């Protein structure tokens, strides 16, 4: 009987992370395309003795590995979503996959810069016709991959139903909501794993495009130095994308507070009635479009924690919250 009573206070912590996201299927398809292109280029390089084809094939292999990490993050988060060992579900696995991809992007940028600087000092012979065709082929493949993935920096919302959790009798309350609203905090509104995959193919496409420009300039105008210079330009852009993704993902992984406008909206919603004052407030991202909150309310008219939860703006998608209530009345 006691267990039946306690059941209403228990709730699921998967927060929809057990569902397959669109980005997972897209990433898997891009991996298949990249791997196929890698095999073709490596085989052709060995068969025809082309270092350009062989080098680009190995380059494709490195990005296939990076995309494989992104695909693994999706699968891991989905399969372990209901694992009780994860206090707030596996939402941050998505962000961890994005962070790992950003680190690999930074390493790729460093490698590009190092090799470009070396070739600027010590130029090497270039088989222009062959190299141009390789670059064009790479641009086409990566262009298709970009179209498949879509823009990695757009919001990817899942249509989920509203779920209301139970209330804890020790002034703690948990509520689960899933909606399709956009949020003010960009770090939580992005699928970082998809963004990482997108940036990898974007970096490849940029490298191919810059290579085409440089090779054409070198072939027809004798500007051989354009090849390594374009490599340095590409490295700088890739590094910038990498650092931007590192900043966004690390903020989520380190539980950085949500944007001021989100915290402000929570505070305003609770303080507009009953003379309430929010004296302690923490709101942070726990997954894609998912927030958790812990707050302390001091009020002259204390009520049950569930009352204060109903005051929270539904559009913020706070799926897990703890409310502590104190009275300003001094006991006699």
List the helices and strands and how they pair.
Layout: H1 2-7, H2 22-48, H3 51-79, E1 87-90, H4 91-121, H5 128-149, E2 167-168, E3 172-173, H6 192-221, H7 226-253, H8 260-271, E4 277-287, E5 290-299, H9 305-310, E6 318-327
Parallel strand pairs: 5-6
Antiparallel strand pairs: 2-3, 4-5
Helix pairs in contact: 2-3, 2-5, 3-4, 3-6, 4-6, 4-7, 5-6, 6-7
Architecture overview:
The chain has 332 residues and is mainly alpha-helical. It folds into 2 domains: 2-154 and 190-253, Up-down Bundle (Alpha-lytic protease prodomain-like), CATH 1.20.1510; 260-327, 2-Layer Sandwich (Alpha-Beta Plaits). It is 58% helix and 12% strand. It is built from 9 helices and 6 strands; from the N terminus they run αααβααββαααββαβ. The chain has a 3-stranded mixed sheet. It is elongated, with a radius of gyration of 26 Å. The model is unreliable at 152-186 (pLDDT under 50).
């Amino acid at each position: 009987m006691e267990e039946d009573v306690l059941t209403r206070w228990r709730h699921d912590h998967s927060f929809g992370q057990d569902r397959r996201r669109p980005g997972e299927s897209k990433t898997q398809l891009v991996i298949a395309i990249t791997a196929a292109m890698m095999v073709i280029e490596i085989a052709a390089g060995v068969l025809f003795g082309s270092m350009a084809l062989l080098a680009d094939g190995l380059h494709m292999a490195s990005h296939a590995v990076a995309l494989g990490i992104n695909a693994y993050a999706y699968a891991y988060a989905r399969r372990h979503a209901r694992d009780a060992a994860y206090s707030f579900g596996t939402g941050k696995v998505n962000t961890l996959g994005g962070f790992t991809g950003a680190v690999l992007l930074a390493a790729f940028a460093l490698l590009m810069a190092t090799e470009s600087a070396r070739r600027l000092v010590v130029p090497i012979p270039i088989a222009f016709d062959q190299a141009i065709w390789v670059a064009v082929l790479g641009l086409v493949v990566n262009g298709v991959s970009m179209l498949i993935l879509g823009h990695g920096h757009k919001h990817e919302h899942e249509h989920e139903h509203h779920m209301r959790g139970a209330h804890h009798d020790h002034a703690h309350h948990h509520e689960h909501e899933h909606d399709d609203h956009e949020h003010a905090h960009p770090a939580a509104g992005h699928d970082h794993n998809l963004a990482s995959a997108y940036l990898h193919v974007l970096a490849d496409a940029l490298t191919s495009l810059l290579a085409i420009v440089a090779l054409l300039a070198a072939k027809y105008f004798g500007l051989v130095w354009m090849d390594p210079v374009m490599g340095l330009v590409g490295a700088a852009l890739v590094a910038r994308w990498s650092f931007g993704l590192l900043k966004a993902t690390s903020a989520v992984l380190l539980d950085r507070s949500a944007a001021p406008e989100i915290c402000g909206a929570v505070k305003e919603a609770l303080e507009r009635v009953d003379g309430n004052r929010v004296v302690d407030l923490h709101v942070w991202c726990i997954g894609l479009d998912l927030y958790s909150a812990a707050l302390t309310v001091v009020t002259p008219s204390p009520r049950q924690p569930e009352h204060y939860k109903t005051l929270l703006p539904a559009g913020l998608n706070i799926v897990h919250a703890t409310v502590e209530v104190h009275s300003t009345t001094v006991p006699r």
